Every structure is written in C-alpha cells, then in structure tokens.
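Anyone have tokens for Aspartokinase? Sequence:
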Amino acid sequence: MVPQNLYPKPSSPFSDMDLLVQKYGGTSVGTAERLDNVAKIVAQTREQGHKVAVVLSAMSSQVKAEGTTTRLMEAAKAAIEGGPYYKIIDQIAERHNETLEQAIKDRTLQERTKADVGSMFKKLKSFLDAIGVIEEISPRSMDVVVGMGEKLSARIFTGVLNDRGIDAVFCNLENLVDEPFTEVNLEFCQYLQGKLAQILAEAGAQVPVFTGYFGFAPGGILKSIGRGYTDFTAALIAAGAKATELQIWKEVDGIYSSDPRKVPKAKVLSAITPEEALELTYYGSEVIHPFTMEQVTRAGIPVRIKNTFSPDLPGTFIDPKYVPDPGNGKATAVTVKRNVTILNVNSNRMLMAYGFMNRVFEVLGRYEIVIDLIATSEVNISMTIDSVSNLAPAIKELERLGTVSVKKGMAILSLVGQGMRNRIGVSGEMFTKLANAGVNIELISQGASEINISCAISDDQSDKALRAVHEMLE
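Reply: yep, here.
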C-alpha cells in the first residue's frame, strides 16, 4: 500500500485559490456551438476567482451510436476484419476538422490545431494498419484506439480557449502510467493522483485541458473501468489536487428522483449524500460512473452535477457533509438497472451448504462473472448478473454442482435513501405498491446496505414499477 504522503500536493501560483475540476461529457462538446458554450462557462468560472482544470470526453451527438468513441471502436473492428477502416477514420476526421474550423476563428491557431489533429489521425491509421496485419487487437491496443477521441476533443478545445484569449495548455495523459501495476486498486489510484497533481501544478496560471484517457490501465481501461473512464480521470485529478469541488457537466439538470422519461413526476434532487449517489450509480443511474464516486468520497470532495445547456440551474450537489432530515423517513430515489439475467443454482445435495456456496463462487470468479444481487438458502443460490459473455462455459461447470436455470430479460429495481434507516415498514410499502401495480417479484435483496432495498423483476414491467414505487417519494 502506498503511504499517504508519498505523493504530496505540489505548490503552485494558484495554491491559495479554490480549484474546480470541470468534466464535460461528449454531448456537451459535440459541435462548435457547444464548444463555445463550454468555453464561456470556463471563462465565467475564472472570472469568479477560481482556478479551473478541464477534462473532456470524446465528441458525441445525442445518439450514442454516432459518437466518436463508438465510431473508433467500429474502425478497430473493421481493421481486424479487413473492412473499410480508412473510410470510418476519414469520416471522423472530417467532422472534427469542420468543428475546429467553425470554433477557432484565428487563422494561425486554427492551422496549428488542424496540423496537430491531422498528425493524430495519421498515427491512428498507421496503428490500425498494424492491427489489420495481425488481425487481432489486445485490450491495451483497443484502449489506444478509443483514447484517440479524448485526445482530439481536448486538443481542439485547447485551441478554442486560446482563441478566446484564455491561456490554456493541452495535457495529453496517454503516457501517464510509467510503472508496472497488476490491478486497478488503491495503490494504482494514489499513484495516478500524485502524477496528475504534479501536471496541474506545472500548468501554473494556465487552464489545463486534460484528456479523459490516461493511458494504460491493468487489464485494459475499457475492461477495468468501462466507457465512463473520463469521469474517473476527473475524480483522480480532483482527489490528487485536493480540489474544492468536482463538477460533472452533462445534458441533464442533475440527478432525478427517477428516470423523468418514464416517471413524469420525477424531480431533480437538490442534494444527496455520497452513499446515496454510490447506490444510485451502481444500480442504474447513468449520471456518474461508480468509480468516480469512490475516489471523491474517499477524499471528501463534493460533486456537483450541472447542465451544460442550462448552466444557471443549481443542479445536484453531492456533499460529504450533507445530513438528510432524520425525521423525514422518506426514500430519496428509485432507479432501475435493465438487461439483467437471473442465475439459479440448486444443489444436488452432494455438498454441505458451505462447500456448495464456495464452489459456486469459485466458478463465477474464474469466469469473471460479477454478481449484483444474491439470495441464498442451504441448497439454492439465486443471483443477478449484468453480463452473459462468459456464462455458457460457467454453466457447464455449475451443472456439476446441481441444477442450473437462467432467466433473461430481467431488471433490478432499487429504492434508495438515507431516510429509510429510521423508518419501519418501508420494504412492506414498496412491495405492496408493486403488487397493486401487478408487478411480480422474482428475487429480493435487503440487508447489505441500510439505504437500499432492491428486487429483481421482469424488464418489461420496469416502467410501471418505477412509477408505482415513486409514489412513495411524492
């Protein structure tokens, strides 16, 4: 374990100023107009006397399939299969060049940015050429391809800020990790925090514009962290530099009490606790990446969720010091995690209870199958999993232990709230609401967290289940 003082926060000309780390999602920077809008937010934040560090996702549109990250993954697949990957890359390049031409007015800055962007695409094509030759791609190589999206958006936005008179510096993190690590653990995170704090200090009075991609992660950044790794990078910067606040700028007004597309009466939550945020992000809310909350919660740094397109709205404040009214007794939010599978294993009674469970978990661990909810008895284990990629070979081994059944098309419904700790009968009320709405419960899990009651239901009933349980919050 790395000692806490191994990576001290370096001093800088702005060490006595509040540091705000602002992370902008792909939709927020998807066009020239949106880049200009983000530049205005950064300028206003500086005018208010704050030091600002910016982290960007790859450019995207309202449709995820059309985003840069998705297109880059398509190009990698095409390279392996001998498909038209040059055509895909040229389309991505055309969009980025059009955007920077519209967003950067100064001709010198525009040409300099365009040259850097062109160099990036040239290197990417050469990299994909090599992938095409060997006809396979490692997790690390896929990370390099996907990480190009954040490099492009960060370089272009640096030019946008310079064009508006803001002294900004492009901080490419693709070679940040220069020591061997075997897993994404506390030691790895503390190492990254120290390195990022040093880069921030070296930026001095400049606005550092960081790529969300930070290079090599054990097992591959997409596999170990997931596509929300840019939020994770921002959290590492905030934790390493002891920021005053981490701001996540997206296209939503904040964290809602439920999905407003499914529940008309859902409302924006003005403040929630980090514990509530962790539960909500893990069980279906897509506003923040779970790893992000772990980093800032450990460092005691508050998070604010803001809408890039409505910057004057207050958003949602996730405050480590926030204490909900203990007399309220209400839950905070209800969320759903879709596309879940229930796996049931019934013992053939040839093993004692402890031996049966141990063998089941050994098999699941070997195939890297992650369990969300679990209910057990002496001869049965029922659990939910959100990925079936390695399920088939795992089932073959589990069938040696007993009867195995699989039920797909399920969802996890979770009621979350600190106030539930002090109220009797919450679970009873929740299950009554579901029963009255005609929702059948397949599995119940309560006890691992005092602030979360979860159950597995059929995915096609999840919308009406959300509306029924949300009545408890109204």
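The longest strand covers residues 333-347.
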